[in-house]
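Form P-L/3: holo structure prediction, ligand flavin-adenine dinucleotide.
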Amino acid sequence: MNSRTNHSAHQTVILGGGFAELFTAIHLSKKGYSQPVVLIDTEERFTFKPLLYELLSEELSRNQVLPPFEKLLHGSGVKFVQDQVQAIDLPNRGVELAKGGRYAYNHLVLALGSVAGDFGIEGVNENTFPFRSGKNAIALKNHLRSGKNAIALKNHLRNRLKQATRTPDPQQRRYLLTVAVIGAGPAGVELAATLGDLLPHWYSEMGGNPEEIRLVLMNRGSQILKGDINRHMRPSARTALKKRSVPVEFLLGASVSAFTPQRV
Ligand SMILES: Cc1cc2nc3c(=O)[nH]c(=O)nc-3n(C[C@H](O)[C@H](O)[C@H](O)COP(=O)(O)OP(=O)(O)OC[C@H]3O[C@@H](n4cnc5c(N)ncnc54)[C@H](O)[C@@H]3O)c2cc1C
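OUTPUT (holo model):
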């Protein structure tokens, strides 16, 4: 057995620190669960995904949207380990971590989340921005230093607006100032609504004319929020999108087949 094995005979190990896992850990602690609990996540901080829009717009701070696990679990008795799970040894009841550690368990909670689906659309990974993490939304300071992920959504959009202020050709400016949000489920609708206020605010601060900004919400189906629990709010969502500082345009029943650096 690996010399770095955590040998605790009766220990519950929770893999991943998303909503499912964090609330499991806190629930066990509140119920006075008798076994030691270990929670393992690659990140140092929890991501409160429904508040990523407010992180982008700076209405909320990094510590509010991305609170450190250590802080959230303080006083709960749950041990937090920042590392990447590499393998699970089911026969021997152990979890292997990237840094070489190994955790024995007698109960295992596995909820490592999901990855962004690309539907196999050509050019999607090279030419679009995902919006699932703090790093996707804003380039965090430590990532800027290491040069990784410096092109997060916020940097990219602000760079484009800045470029537009220096571009005399109206057609080229139109291109720089057109933003497409693909998918009109709850995340696309909320992101479009956020950008509808944020982009004109940023652009006028830079001295640009916000009326030149174009924001298009594209969706394969003919209705926004289709199949969503909040679909009864569709009419008010549509009205709200139209009332942003830059009204959101709809392109519905449009199935995107490819992304290039300049076109959808
Ligand atoms: C922008 C946005 C807004 C949303 N808004 C809402 C909303 O308003 N309401 C709602 O109900 N849902 C919302 N959702 C969806 C909701 O956030 C997800 O359904 C939820 O986060 C899923 O939780 P999870 O615990 O299953 O996975 P995740 O939150 O994805 O957590 C998985 C965790 O596992 C960790 N992990 C993955 N692989 C490894 C590994 N190998 N080793 C260690 N750790 C690993 C990750 O770092 C992550 O912390 C939103 C999602 C997004 C992207």
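COMMENT: The mean pLDDT is 92.
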